[in-house]
Amino acid sequence: MGCVRRLKGSWWIDFRDAEGIRRRKRIGPDKRAAQDVLRSVLGQVVRREHLGLVEDSTIGFGDFAELWFKRVSGSFSPTTQARWRVILDHHLKPGFQGARKSITAGKLEEHVSDRVEAQASPGSINLEITILKHLFGRAVKWEYLAKDPAKDLRKLRENPGRTRFLSEEEIESLLAACRPESQPGATSPLLLSYLRPLVLLALNSGMRRGEILGLTRRDVDWENRVATLRRTKNGDARHVFLNEGAISALHGIPPRLDSDRFFPFTGEQVTMAFRRACKRAGIPDFRFHDLRHTFASYHAMAGIQARGLQDLLGHRDGRMTTRYSHLSDVYLRSAVDQLKLGTGADLGTRRAPGSGRVS
Q1: 117: phi then psi, degrees, rounded to nearest 5
Q2: How far apart are CA 182 and CA 273, in angstroms?
């Protein structure tokens, strides 16, 4: 498995690690020291390969999680970074104390079971599982662990995505509740003065909250009425068509000297102000993201086909768009009802097409 070699007056150890990769390391002028080091290294290789132990690392889960996040988060979108950061700080780090190498597959399954008992949603739990798989996969790749305890961790079955959308009456009630004058004593009048155009833009464009908050004036082609989203949830830039309602909402926002963004606020600020507006409007169980569902639902009912709706929403996977397919039936039924053939004819004796016989 290994040997010591003399090269240019120094002794080297030559061995293969637990992954079968050949390693060579200079030790010094003492052959006995090189032999001792080789025996120690080979012992670590055996323990790493067969027991999954890392002798030279005592780093805890929390410290390794910070190291992992620092190395990998640069490749994530700002929205993903923020969401993974919250999950890491509030659920995973508190849930896994002590050394990282002491975390077994059984402990990971126990964590999932505890989160189910705490009535966390399957989607939230599955995101935690995704993070754990990514984290422990890197731990193995970076040789902090020999075996991945999250390798066989299975995700939960999720319920179909919700398609909660507003009626036309609810839309008017919500927009009225977003006006500054409807919110006496508000602590953030600046945000509240922006809330109505923000909601109008979401309803008329179908953009996500993060996409709207990242939108700048240079991203909008006013002549062609197109907004360019440079950073999206999928990581790809995309173009969004802006109708008259969206353009009017953007035109109504005064330019700021301190920011090029239309809405210089955090996602949490928008969420809190939106929840209060929904409460004032008497609209229960409605989230800001459901404005996107409202946009998609009305387009589906207007007859936009699945492929066109997928492009409008920026879905990479067409299966995400199928949740609106039942709403297309409203349009199809309306189209069938509007088409009447053989009006006034005796249906009991109508002739079959292309034949002279009564069918």
Answers
A1: -65, -30
A2: 12
